[in-house]
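re the bet — no i am not wrong, look at it urself. input seq straight from the record:
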Amino acid sequence: MNDNLFGKQEKNKLDINVKIIALGGAGCKILKRINSRLHKNIQKDAIDTSISSLNNLSEDIKKYNVATDRYGGKGTDCDYYGLKEYLVEDRMENIKIEKTENIDLIIFISCLGYGSGSAILPWALEQLEESLDQLGRKTIKLGFFIQPAINENPDSLEIIDDSLKHSNEKLDSYLMISNDKLYSNFQGTLEDALHKADSCLMEIIDLIIKNNYNTINLDKANILEFFRNAGQIHFGQGKSKEETMIHMAIEESFEGALLRPLPINKPPRRALCWINGPPISACLHQEIVESISSRLSPSINGKQGKVNISINTMNQKMVEIHLMLSSKQRIA
């Protein structure tokens, strides 16, 4: 047994209390796919407008049916604004998500866009806002989302923005997988995205648990850093022309390398992308910086500007690149 932040580690018992909450049909699908691989002590909830969707889940998952068929439907048939209003105004007092004491980490899984998960997310966060961890601090709340193809469902972009606008302050961090061919380098269907999501989600959960077992103190900052460092699963959203050109330059700089750059939608500390791959040397780090620098030429009003590229490693595996470009700068 090992000592860590939450005391002694016993075999087959988690010191960190984790709850996974699936929102909407896509969230329920992902939870169903990973359920048998989850540690038995991880708690699981599912919230959806569809009774049949909830009935497809195993008995060890606590289920909440939050609305009538009027606000359900499938895909683009979901009445997002109607469901959001229904949850907040009509059912907030009637349906309560059961609060389990001393939950250290809650991971919300959902598809943001045209499904019911977009409306359920802010409502669920409101329900669980005052949850506390084992040390009496606010529970960490992370979002793990799939984004549908914007070009096929243009209205979903407005819904995603509205959902996140009402959720951002209560979420500590989130990652998103997109199957959008316009805004993503991930080519595949929504089912492909679901398949990718379950593997990535398990990777995040395993990473948290393994580091807990290895006696790393899992305070809030550490857990958020673990989550952010899973950047290889995040395929970003729409980028400006300048950012697109930056990413093209970065990708070209890594051509032939085992590493690969991936954009993130809500970058911590203004990092435009994360690079993930096997351990690399400091010498290769420097070559990468020089390659990227030589391909980028930002300017302000025709005068040469400055691009700051800094690299930070974690166990020599994760490379973080900062490209500081203000809104007034452009790629020459």
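see?? The CA atoms of residues 30 and 194 lie 6 Å apart. told u. also The chain has a mean pLDDT of 64. so pay up
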